[in-house]
Amino acid sequence: MQLKPFLLLLAYAIVDVFAADDTKTTTTSKSDPCSFSTTIIEPTGIQELNTCATLKGEITISGNAIGPIDLPSVRELAGSLTIVNSPSVVSVSLNSLQNITGKFQIKNATQLNSIDVISLERVKDLQFISLPSLSNFNFNPSIKAVEKIVLSDTALYDLSGLTHFTEINYMNLNNNKNITEIEFPNLKTVTDNLILSFNHDDAKVKMDKLIWAANLTIQDVAKFSAVNLTAVNGTLGFSYNAIEELKLDKLESVGESLQIFANDDLDNLSLKKLSEIGGEFKMFNNTELDNMTSSFPELKRVRGALSITGDFKDLQMPKLDRVQGDFKMTSKNEDFSCKHFDDLKDRGRIEGHNYECTPGKKEKLGKQGDDDDDDDDDRDSGSKKTSSKKNGGNNVLVPMNFLTSVFAFLIANFV
């Protein structure tokens, strides 16, 4: 009987715990009914959002029960909006929304085909990821501020209003297979990272007002132009491109690594003002790049390792005076000379523990000659065999002629 009060208290505690769990999906401020964080899985939750002109909190919309999302009343979101794992969502309309202080993310919405945010002026973080049906994106071309943009795996044909800003913190455009033109007519500064990779195979990229970037990665484009790029503070990389020409003739320095590899059509590389690379310098698998006589006329120092391999017959760095890491330069071309780099090594200007400079080996007639010798042996052998047979025949014929003559002589004189 003494256990009864204890069991009652335990039951009340359990009820309180479950009640607390039930309220975890929505946290509402009692003083402000439009200030709450919630996860919406039913269409009725979307309707409730429309009662507020300004929403404050973290709003997540998810699940298979959500159809079109239309929030015509919401003008500002002091927080974030995430639409995730909602294959039933076909459209998102936020045409009155002007400001999002946090993140606006739509991810894994496979049937979503249109997004309308025509009034949006400011958003901190914009991410559209794994939206394979998204082909219509109506964005405010006069947007004033975006810090971060990620567009990945969409069906978009262009970047709508996402190209007119002068500065971006972070932008990653990848696997948007319909985008053939990427142009940033006003972009001057990238403060974190700009990544353009594996969009349309024939994508043409133009950012001729870009002066400075923290990091820049360009992959799988057909043309690239950044004629005013002066400095990259971090890493600069070009790989898997179909570009035939890469000219960055105003680029003076790369703060960390410079990587140029797997550009199969590249046959003209020009970095006429590049004087210093702050980290690693690596080039390989640029199969058509056979002449770099004037590619690096001002390069003086590489603060990391240098590794360049290819089929180049001429690569000159006349002002190179110091490499602070390992050095490897290998060409398959027999006309390439290591003299300048060997001299640097001898003078102690290449400071790494490992040094290798290897020109292509001239084709030894030995190997080809061996094959020819084998062929000659075969021919000689045949001729020798043939000759042997002929000689063998002659050896038989001589005694027969001799015997015939003797026999004729005997008949004439003694018969």
From TrEMBL:
SUPFAM superfamilies: L domain-like (SSF52058). Residues 352-369 have a biased composition (Basic and acidic residues). It is found in: Cell membrane; Secreted, Cell wall. Residues 370-379 have a biased composition (Acidic residues). This is Receptor L-domain domain-containing protein. It is a lipid-anchor; GPI-anchor. Residues 1-19 form the signal peptide. One of its GO terms (biological process) is fungal-type cell wall organization. Keywords: Cell wall, Glycoprotein, Secreted, Signal. The keyword ATP-binding does not apply. Residues 352-394 are annotated as: Disordered. Belongs to the SPS2 family. One of its GO terms (cellular component) is fungal-type cell wall. It comes from Spathaspora passalidarum (strain NRRL Y-27907 / 11-Y1). PANTHER family: RECEPTOR PROTEIN-TYROSINE KINASE, SPORULATION-SPECIFIC PROTEIN-RELATED.
